[in-house]
Amino acid sequence: MTTSDSFPVTNGATREEKDLLGRLNVPADAYYGIQTLRAVNNFHLSGVPLSHHPQLIVSLAMVKQAAADANHHLGQLETKRFEAIEHACQRLIDGERHDQFVVDMIQGGAGTSTNMNANEVIANLGLEYLGHAKGDYQHLHPNNDINMAQSTNDAYPTAIRLGLLLGHDDLLESLLRLCESFSRKGDEFADILKMGRTQLQDAVPMTLGQEFQAFATTLGEDHGLLARRVPELLREVNLGGTAIGTGINTDARYQKLAVERLAAISEHELSPAHDLIEATSDMGDFVMFSGMLKRLAVKLSKICNDLRLLSSGPRTGFNEINLPARQPGSSIMPGKVNPVIPEAVNQVAFEVIGNDLSLSLAAEGGQLQLNVMEPLIVYKIFDSIRLLTRAMDMLRELCVDDITANEAHCRQLVERSIGLVTALNPYIGYDDATRIAQKALATGRGVLELVQEENLLDHETLAEALRPENMVMPR
Asked: Residue 4: what pLDDT?
């Protein structure tokens, strides 16, 4: 078990702090304090600290700044302390001192350790601004001042919602760029005729452009869904509800004012929850958001399956497209190149699907007026957003943008395919089409060759029937 003495410090010096359990030596140059240190010593689980998700830290700082602003406006927080808090929060919002958020993402206490990590860092940054030593909390206290009119149970969920809104923009941008990349390939491959397949068997002709445009369309649906629904899901916050939603220890005017200030600071449309008790305990919005992320992951994985199939071979597979070679594929087979980028995206999708299950169980695992499993919910949903954003950027940059088509091979497969007879069905009738198909299968000869041999269609009609535009869209 890690102790405070073994926790890494930069200069070896310590300062003593105390809490209700006693005293501990905290690294002298640390901006966190004793309660953060206890959490670090207790929770060695995911290995992922809060600092891994900067949007969460920024949103926590915005919540603390908004609360301080409201308390100052209501005359509860003196100007000197408010200015120190505002300065400290702005430094965090600007990306400074995120390394001081050291608590593991998975933790007991319903997020209290995360909240106290923020309170202590802000207090010590504020003390520095005021010219006092770290840990000299009589001048600016983590609980009395930074956490004034708050509980973990309203500050933490509010920060989660805001952090997801902040990170959501990056996810949408990555998804949009991937859609555009597939759409460009759709245009590039618009005139390349190929066989469509159902159940891995030849079906009817289509263009490679149609196939890639369908990838763009299906992902575009998710972009629209996420852009429209996520702000609606997350904009209602329970800030001001404090412990269980009753608003104990707050001024009656505080909730409205704090949420207004938070909306202004974050530049996101936020509103107070109508029922603070419900909003404090219910995790349904996170379940729905995670479900949308899972849906996107499933679609991405299916597309990557298709890319791997279409590029399979090169001599014994479909070989209709070429994925860019990114690394040698084998330690024993010379010349082998694997579809490593789609394979990696598949694995990200599996992780996101697993995250959704973990989050769902955590949301169900709450009791009464609080869900103590919120840290797992936060960890999994932020992880899914981070993984999907990176995976989509990787897929676009290292794969989709540089895909090329084997046009002649695609055309050859169409001309040799039994499925081509479906395009001739309106001209020669179902019975003759079936007979030709069976004969082609039995003899290994081509459908076109047999139709011409039996004079079922004259050359002009056959040429018209086999024009690509007549085979890939309604007539």
From this structure: 39
